[in-house]
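haha ok so turns out i had the wrong file open the whole time. this is the CORRECT one, sorry everyone. sequence first:
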Amino acid sequence: MRRRRLLPFLSLALLAALLAMSCATSPPRNTVDSCAIFNEKGGWYSDALDSQKKWGVPIHVQLAIIYQESRFVHDAKPPRKKLLWVIPWTRLSSAYGYGQIKDGTWDWYRKSTGNRWADRDDFEDVVDFIGWYVDVSHRKLGISKSDAYNQYLAYHEGHGGFKRKTYKKKPWLIKVAKKVASRASVYHTQLKQCESKLDRGWWIF
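then structure:
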């Protein structure tokens, strides 16, 4: 009898756990409004703020890069491409997660920071990675940490590619970097209107 009585409660607990996991990994409903993002994903603001304090990279720059790379989809991957004379529908890149970070770059981050258990599908780890990478770009290339345009070019092309100015041969990438800079500016304006509430924890739950 006790087992029968416990079954409904266990089922409800399992359902609640599955719903919580789904909410934790699903992208925000409104990805174009930084205040709405943090209102829905309460823990994300403290994660982004920690990264900002640690690396000096503005929250709006972090968000703009993530938006461009994955639209806040935690397990995003590059689309597959069909190649002749190669395995059909081969994936050409190891990029993965919120920040579309390649295996080699992620390994470099984990070794450099000691954050060996970090995951590319964990928002907290990815904003820390972006803070770290932007900081490295600032030190190596002299790019301002608030310069979303050039920081994105360095993020996409790598430090060596940015030095060689490989982006100049990619007009499409220049357009994308401009979009990233524009979105960062919008996010920045929005955050000015709600940041004081977020700092006081009004919307964090």
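Helices lie at 2-25, 34-40, 42-55, 59-70, 103-113, 123-141, 148-164, 171-199.
again sry for the mixup
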